[in-house]
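step=predict obj=Diguanylate cyclase (GGDEF)-like protein n=800
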Amino acid sequence: MHTIHDVGPRHEHADGARLSAPPSMRVDGVTKRGVSVQIKAVLVSTVLLGVALGIVTLVLLLGVAPQVAALDRMRAADRLHQVVAALDREMVALDGLVADRAARPRGGVDGAPQGLPSSLVAAGIAALAVADAEGARAWDGTGGPPVGVPIGGAAGDAPSWPGGDPLEALRALVAEGDGAAVRGLIGTARGPMMVARWPLTAGEAGAASGGALAMGRWLSDVVGAATPARSGLTVTLRPAVGTDPPAGGPAASTARDGHGGSGTDITVVPGPTPDTLRAVAVLDDVSGAPLALLRAEIPKQVTPIGWRALGIGLAVMAGASLLAILASLAVVRRMVLTPLVDLATHIRAVTSTGDLTDSLIETGRRDELGDLANAINGMRHRVVRLAYFDTLTGLPNRRLLEDRADQLLRIAHRSDQKVALLFLDLDGFKAVNDAKGHGAGDSLLQAVARGLKQMVRESDTVGRLGGDEFVVVMHNPAGRAQVEDLADRVLERFRQPFQTSVGKVFVGVSIGIALYPDDGTDLHGLLGKADAAMYQAKTAGGGRSAFLNGDQHRQAADSMDMTQAFREAIFADQLRLVYQPQVDLESGSQVRHEALIRWVHPQRGTIRAEEFIHLADSGTLFARLDAWVLRTACEALARGRGDGAALSVVAVNLSTRHLIGQDLVGLVRDALGRHDLSPRGLVLELSANSVDPSQDEAMRTLTDLRALGVGIAIDGFGAGRVALGDLRRVPATILKINRGLVRDAPRQDASVAIIRALVSLGHDLDMEVVADGVETEAQLAVVRACGCRVAQGYLLGVAS
């Protein structure tokens, strides 16, 4: 036997079986496409590149840019240092010249004061003064005015230098007569002068030496000579204002000792334009007081070069990064995106055609994409299993079963063959499920499925429609006898226990059989007739098989129509409750009323509960029906009247299936609370034929209902599953004697004895005993004589 055939277009699942794709599985969906992964990767890479370049730029700005600026400041300080160093050299040269002339009589000058010797003028001497030993003026003379670098005032205005006449300042220097050599700067009204003084070491015509010689040069001339035009420096002299170096702000930098020479300080500050720096040296006079500021405007060179290098570096980095990104994207596109697109195309093809058995995805890769392809293949196998196979038993589900049966019917039509359809419904499965739990029920269904697969041929198909219903499709049976033989073997197997998770379990089966083409030519018709035949087999007592003849088919159709009509009746407001009193036989008062359900059928009129209540108990309508009965009875109880009867206490009949897994306590509490009713006004009647004292959950539900304050009545006691000894487990408050015992009591002494015993037992257990079905005076007399105090029946009051 196999569950799938190689007929027509096929699907293949994990265990090697093949099946066709039902048309219902073929869907055509269009999904709106968003931004592609490649574009997202480009965007993300671009953002990351921008962030990286931003971080690098920030690092360079914070780390490298200050260093570049520092280099430019050092260069500016060094350039001005070169000028200061040249001044130092000129000072040394002047000092040497003065020393050399001091060794001559009167410093090498003769005659009355007059212009300076041409040799001294050529040497740049601007003034000369000689004093004798007593410090008196011996000789002096001056050259021209300063012609070197500009010597403007502090704000660049007209010269305003501290000091007096240059020659007087020089005379004062030689007149000091302390005998020491001096060199340095002195201030004059015409600008600072570089001077040197030496004592005279040779007297006139053999006279003793004495006196001093001093010469001076204009500082601006010296600076101008030390600053060639091609150097690019713009040097100026300004009077020193105070002793503090010029304020340079955060960009100021000072170089000392080795840059300034002779202890001169050099300060670098921002220049008048963004691309220049200003280096300033403070020049002291011979007394050590600040005299002049030597200021140079120096164009920046390192910073522009640094910024250009930085820009070029960032551009190269960005270009290299972009190329790397493009190369990476190309690799990703080839190795990842293209295979993903192929996978998506394949999946869309499967989605559009619904053909889950399209060729498997083969990538030949052992990486993550290979894992993805394998996962998709595995998912497809799993989807096939979920779509076409019952998850509990592994048998084909309704969809696959119908598809397989349709294929077999088409083959049978083309080849003039036969097809048999066996519809199986388990007998007593609900009792097993209720008594032993849903786990045991599932285990039983699995065992049944295994047993059925072992009994059919390879060409036959076994499927599960749902619940406890199975179908066997026989392909081209040899005849009716072969179909009956299979049904008999199935029935014989069901007479043996099935091994389940809770041990061995007995369960029966009813089988309905339909044949193609005798009973129908399409699957829907064959299933309907096989279902009707199964229902006839079950009605006849179960544990048998049946073919559907004409009369049986009409009866089955009527039953199915009745079932469908009853389903509609619940929603179409065709049900109503009538109320029959239960009477106290001593006082004649009405103790309570039992709510009895009636179906007002549009064609058949009013139908009593006995004719249709089984339709609810055999299906899943019991819960909805019980909820309606409770709600309607509580509404009538709240009004105090129901269908013409005055109500104080109402008894309602409920299905015992509601005791397990249905939250009956919550349903009752909600119905009472909706109308603010006392639980003592409600009695729940349960049939003794279906109450099972061994079901722990059912007994817990009854106990909870009693704790709520609701009365519990066992209906039909004396002929059901509740034995006398089980009464101690059932928390009942009322026993209703079976109406069959009451009916037979006037003519059967045994029935009288049983009634008397039940009444005595009930009273001893502090239960109220009600005789049900009292319809004659003779029956009433018997129940009175047996000690029964409450009775119900048409003799005492009809339902109204």
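step=describe
Residues 37-102 form the longest helix (66 residues).
step=end
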